Amino acid sequence: MLDADPCPCGRLDARSRPLPYASCCGALHQRFASTGRWDAPDAEALMRSRYSAFTLNLLDYLRATWHPDTRPAALEPNEPGLKWLGLQIKSRAQQDPDHATVEFVARSKLGGRAWRLHETSRFVRLDGQWHYLDGDLR
Question: pTM (2 decimals)?
């Protein structure tokens, strides 16, 4: 993905234009690649960066941003032919300074069949870093 390409997460600027990857999730991915930290400003930003990481097969980023208590031992790359179609944030809520939820729908297509993942994800801040904890499918 080129830095000027629209970010996979679909975030828009103030003029309703897609943000470039480098100015959106790419900044978090690059920070992680160079420092091991991602410093997402809030749970929604981490959610968006994780969606983009899924679309780009950034498995190290996904594992690092997963809470250590619920992180899987390994992640598999996307199946060949999987096409990510978009992310829609339905709602977001911050329960306190270190806990938040984000409800989203992620759409994909594989083998001519459309898929939809609708989840309310829970996020926890550890040592100043937001982490994905778990989620409830809807």
Answer: 0.96
